[in-house]
Amino acid sequence: MVFTTGKKLLAAVLVSAGMLAGAQAADYARHPLALELMAEMRDEFGFTEERLQQVFALAHKQQGILDAISRPAERVKPWKEYRPIFLTRQRIDKGLQFWAENEEALARAEKEYGVPAEFIVAIIGVETFYGGNTGRYSVLDALSTLAFDYPPRAPFFRGQLKQFLLLTREEQLEPASLKGSYAGAMGLPQFMPGSFRAYAVDFNGDGRINIWTDAEDAIGSVANYFIEHGWQPGQKVAVPATLKNEQAEQGLTGGLDPKHSMKELKALGWQAQQKVAGKTRVTAFRFDGESGVEYWLGLPNFQAITRYNRSEMYAMAVTQLAETLASEFKETR
Fold first, then answer.
1. Residue span of the signal peptide, if any (predicted)?
2. Which label site among 3, 115, 253, 260 has the fewest CB atoms less than 10 Å from its CB?
3. 44 is catalytic
């Protein structure tokens, strides 16, 4: 009697374990929302049913991705705490090494696009530590999970999933083989699939676009991204400012899109520490720096950097890392 009960218990345990494993291994091949997307990919872009089933049979819901994107935002750090994260000796030294190893490609990108080498290096340094941390998640899993099981931003990620399927077909890549961030950002420059298809370039001329392991393609792609988002070759990025009176703070932008021209800000009491044309539309902002309050004017090139990440502190970190890299790289020449 005990033996029979034991066998039944063992069988129940095995069945439960099998069900759990099956739940963990469940793919998106038969998910209703995935089936809708597959129909669109067939009708709009000529994908075959067989190919789509093959792809989504390899796409799995990842709770870790949902946990990551749903995690409460960290306390917004003041500039005096945010800046040291990116202006470290290690990041600077690694950036100088990356620049030296890719000097020819960076010089060519600067010549062809008008984007200084130091800003290309800085973006890659801030995004992935020069390729050292490009993400550990399956891009297919990330985009599928967020497209089908994360309602707050499902439309955005659904669109990015479609772009991803298109780019993997165009570049002849296996969707399940690519790694990236939990949000599906890819490669050394962390491009989302839509940005990849719009701005990534074959900068080494080998007939493929590889931003995952090819530094040349990543370099050219970052430069192209900047120029397509309004980078103005030969122009400044940001300049410090002083205020003549407290009322001048009325000129603070309160966002990333410029509201005033330099002429208008000057009338409010802003004084740029470097020459800025009166007609230039600028982003006026204030930081809590190590030595006190800092006032800055972001010019069109600063605004181009914020198209990469919608944050004034991000853009300033990239700018100051770039300036440091440029200064130290010249010393090695």
1. 1-25
2. 3
3. no
- Among residues 103, 104, 112, 127, the one annotated as catalytic is 127
Q: At what angle do helices 49-56 and 32-45 cross, to 10 degrees?
A: 140
List the one residue out of 50, 70, 62 whose CA is nearest residue 24: 62
**3 state DSSP class of 56:** helix
Confidence band, pLDDT 50/70/90 cuts, at residue 13: very low
Does the pLDDT of residue 104 top 90, yes or no?
A: yes
Residue with tokens 């040349």: 216
Number of Cβ within 10 Å of residue 302's Cβ equals 25
Angle, CA 234 vertex, CA 116 and CA 312 arms, to 5°:
70
> Model pTM?
0.90
Q: Please give the domain boundaries of the chain with CATH numbers for all domains.
A: 27-78+135-185 (1.10.8.350), 238-298 (no CATH)
Q: What angle do CA 20, 21, 24 make, to 5 degrees?
A: 90
Q: Tell me what pLDDT residue 332 has.
A: 87
Give the Cα separation of 230 and 65 in Å (integer).
Answer: 33
Where is average pLDDT lowest: 68-82, 94-108, 250-264, 316-330? 68-82
Residue 87, class by beta-carbon neighbours within 10 Å (0-12 exposed, 13-18 middle, 19+ buried)? middle
Across 242-246, average pLDDT: 93
CB of 157 within 8 A of CB of 66?
Answer: no
